[in-house]
Give the backbone structure.
Amino acid sequence: MNLTIRRAEPSDYEGMQKIFSGPKVIWGTLQLPYPSVDMWRKRLAENQENVFELVACVEGDIVGQVFLQIFPRPRRKHVGQIGMSVRDDFQGQGVGTALMQAAVDMADRWLNVLRLELDVYTDNEPAVRLYKKFGFEIEGTLKKYAYRDGEYVDVYAMARFRPENPS
């Protein structure tokens, strides 16, 4: 698979809408079903200075995304937050690993982020394994954090600290 990672562009809105239309992606994120193309067009057009959105592409087709948001407040500028999704038909093929590597590299080597945070549903075992592979640790469980598919579900609050000598 010829996978490339690049910065998301405003013109990527249709690919992003396709990612977030998948039942597995909806199940694993806080997004609602049936996302509109227009919502993604507006979101990508905003281009916030403290948000870095990357996409994974296979032969020009967007198959995954990760966002890295840096907190702008003075006492939390050392912290970033990550959210990631891989299109249903590309899960389990290394796309998530490539996206996490790119996000962690950007945070550690270019943005001077000391602490990276994320939330993940406790029953999303593949995602939890991926995050642990990149040094994230479970810091706590948030009970009944979100309403998904007719029930309240828990999430893990996970974080990692930048290694002393990032490679």
The CA atoms of residues 28 and 69 lie 19 Å apart. The beta strands are 3-7, 51-58, 61-70, 79-86, 115-121, 137-148, 151-161.
